[in-house]
Design a protein that fits this description.
Structural class: mainly alpha
Number of strands: 2
Length: about 325
């Protein structure tokens, strides 16, 4: 009674850990981070440093003084990752005090009250972004142009590709889409007008991160591929039906779609556990993103689509379960 029963050898030791996975994702984010520094300069550095520092300090303080946890989880990498992802979803000219408010929502409202890493229902970085978008819509939808390396709060702004797509849909004028950068410029991040959030500017850098995470088996292909495939199919149908809707390649390469599909929707805690559940989850996110982008109030719908499906993850896990070892189908 109460004894530990150990099976016979050989025994397998897994090298997987929270720290390994968190820092693995952080490494995968480095190409996109360096690209954001290259295109946005000082503003990107300030936003990233503020976001990461605020998230780490908040998690440390809440763990130590409010939750009074014996083991502080601040070094497991999750707070650093939340800070990076929050920064990636922000404009590079956002004031420091607004960034700190976003960190408070991410760590203080979406993560720690639920018990910390592994217990939160919603992606903390996206909660922070959504809260700021509702509270500070003007600052959160003003996008600096690239190439202003020494500028921060006074950076010149412009219209993003998603804003141009939204204008074309609202006006019913397909010629508005002529202002869109070409696909290669979107892929490399080489578009001088309003480029959007810091982490979404260069699809190539994000894909490098995806390849790294797949190679290291940090994530599987099911969620990112199902999201991108769904968006491509529906964007193609809309474009063929009416040319005021942008072509599918431009849709995929614009805004936070790649960032969300690769780094946000694949969050372990808030995404389904089984491959089948992950595909259902990804298809739903892709469809919701297209719906919100085309008919919603905001040009971007990726963040809201992921948060909506975060709420359905427990339901998906409940109904899409893996077959238990040794289980045989019931006879009719």
């Amino acid at each position: 009674m109460g004894k530990l029963i150990v099976s016979l050898s050989p025994h397998a030791h897994g090298t997987d850990s929270v720290e390994r996975n968190m820092y693995g994702v952080i490494i995968a984010l480095m190409p996109a981070l360096l690209v954001s520094f290259y295109f946005f300069g000082l503003g990107s550095v300030i936003v990233t440093a503020t976001s990461v520092a605020a998230c780490v300090l908040l998690e440390w303080a809440i763990s130590k003084f409010i939750l009074k946890q014996e083991r502080n989880t601040v070094l497991d990498g999750s707070a650093i990752l939340t800070g990076l992802l929050l920064a990636f979803n922000l404009p590079s000219n956002l004031p420091v005090w607004i960034i700190i408010i976003g960190a408070i929502f991410a760590i203080g409202f979406a993560k720690m009250p639920f018990g910390g890493l592994g217990n939160n229902l919603f992606n903390p970085a996206l909660v922070g972004r959504a809260a700021l978008l509702v509270a500070f819509p003007a600052q959160m939808t003003t996008w600096p142009k690239t190439g202003q390396l020494g500028s921060y709060l006074d950076a010149e702004t412009g219209a993003t590709p998603l804003a141009i797509m939204k204008e074309a849909i609202k006006s019913g004028d397909a010629t508005v889409l002529d202002r869109l950068p070409d696909a290669m410029s979107l892929f490399l991040g080489n578009h001088p007008d309003g480029a959007g959030a810091m982490g979404e500017i260069c699809a190539l850098a994000l894909l490098i991160g995806l390849v790294y995470m797949l190679w290291k088996k940090i994530i599987t292909w099911h969620i990112p591929v199902s999201i991108l495939a769904t968006v491509f199919v529906f964007a193609s149908l809309f474009h063929l039906a009416n040319p005021v809707y942008a072509d599918p390649v431009s849709v995929i390469l614009s805004g936070g779609l790649m960032l969300g599909a690769i780094f946000m929707a694949t969050d372990y805690v808030t995404s389904p556990m089984t491959p089948k559940g992950q595909v259902i989850y990804g298809v739903a996110i892709g469809l919701l993103t297209i719906i919100i982008r085309n008919w919603g109030a905001y040009p971007e719908g990726m963040s809201f689509a992921i948060l909506i499906m975060n709420a359905f993850t427990p339901l998906i896990n409940n109904y899409i379960k893996p077959k238990r070892f040794g289980e045989t189908p019931a006879k009719s």
